[in-house]
UniProtKB/TrEMBL annotation:
One of its GO terms (biological process) is fatty acid beta-oxidation. One of its GO terms (molecular function) is 3-hydroxybutyryl-CoA dehydrogenase activity. The chain holds residues 1 to 293 of 386 of the full protein. Residues 187-284 form the 3-hydroxyacyl-CoA dehydrogenase C-terminal domain. It comes from Flavobacterium lacus. It comes from the Bacteria. Keywords: Oxidoreductase. This is 3-hydroxybutyryl-CoA dehydrogenase. Residues 6-184 form the 3-hydroxyacyl-CoA dehydrogenase NAD binding domain.
């Protein structure tokens, strides 16, 4: 296992926090960066809670908990990322904002630093093209929750060097994850296959054929899924999930198979993101989750 790799994770939301935990558990020194102080504070508190639960369940001991916590430092200062061997970006799913971040990053890090994006759906080639050394850019797509989900998609862009691909696969394998190398196409593998799962469920709901709690119940009880589509959208974040659908729809030249839903758009606009905001399709602030309408 690579124990002394210096890793920077940019964006301390749902994914960035989980990725930082994975890297820190594997023994890497992690700088978790965000522009938002509150997001960093929330991430630090959540890690403490998560690890304490693991101690209670006797999955790890106090020494291991302290080791993981001490491997992560939280920062709002970009310059502190300058010594990183690997940077993983997990900020908002917006191509222009990601491209700007990557081009700025190059002014701070060493020429051999690998720059990775955790994007769910955007073009890695386009992100790489914002850099002077596009051959060091690659997609590393973790799934939510990153510490629990085994699969990681690794996505080389057409510009990515063989060496960067090999090093990335080795690192992610060292982090005890299973790597699937995916082509740089919209949604890669899993997010493309998953689109109809969400969109058909939304269509059934919008057509008034069933309410979302019944759809979730059916998919779990009869379909054998661990989570129903609406629970899963709330878990992922309706803002993130909607944006990914919109990106895939646009990238496939408006193929109606991937058409986004107004229902989810309105939830996102109302900041009903799901679990992370306390309300989505379901209301997480009340004792019993119940439909919001
Ligand atoms: P999130 O909304 O939970 O967190 C994003 C974080 O990035 C926030 O803390 C925000 O303050 C920060 N941020 C935004 N712009 C920034 C900037 N310019 N510089 C530094 N920090 C900035 O989002 P989430 O869900 O963690 O998603 C992040 C990325 O991971 C997206 O590209 C998303 O598509 C991808 N992803 C999301 C999954 C999910 O289930 N939520 C699963 C796999 C990938």
């Amino acid at each position: 296992m690579e124990t002394n790799l210096k890793v920077a994770v940019i964006g301390s939301g749902t994914m960035g926090s989980g990725i930082a935990q994975v890297a820190a558990t594997a023994g890497c020194h992690v700088h978790l960066y965000d522009t938002n102080h509150a997001a960093l504070e929330k991430s630090e508190n959540n890690l403490e809670t998560t690890l304490s639960r693991l101690v209670e369940k006797e999955k790890i001991d106090e020494t291991e908990k302290d080791r993981i916590i001490n491997n992560i430092s939280y920062t709002t200062t970009f310059a502190e990322l300058s010594h990183s061997d690997l940077v993983i970006e997990a900020i908002v799913e917006n191509l222009d904002i990601k491209r700007k971040l990557f081009s700025e990053l190059e002014n701070y890090v060493a020429p051999e630093t690998i720059l990775a994006s955790n994007t769910s759906s955007l073009s890695i080639a386009s992100i790489a093209a914002s850099c002077q050394k596009p051959e060091r850019v690659i997609g590393i797509h973790f799934f939510n929750p990153a510490p629990l989900m085994q699969l990681v998609e690794v996505i080389p862009a057409i510009q990515t060097s063989e060496e960067v691909l090999e090093k990335t696969v080795q690192t992610i394998t060292d982090w005890k994850k299973v790597v699937a190398i995916a082509k740089d196409t919209p949604g890669f593998i899993v997010n493309r296959v998953a689109r109809p799962f969400y969109s058909e469920a939304l269509r059934i709901y919008e057509e008034g054929k069933a309410d979302f709690a019944s759809i979730d119940w059916s998919m779990k009880t009869i379909g054998g899924f661990r989570m129903g589509p609406f629970e899963l959208m709330d878990f992922i974040g309706n803002d993130v999930n909607y944006t990914v659908t919109e990106t895939v729809f646009t990238a496939f030249y408006f193929d109606p198979r991937y058409k986004p839903s107004f229902t989810q758009k309105r939830l996102s606009e109302a900041c009903y993101f799901g679990r992370k905001s306390g309300r989505g399709f379901y209301n997480y602030n009340s004792e019993l989750p119940k439909p919001t309408e």
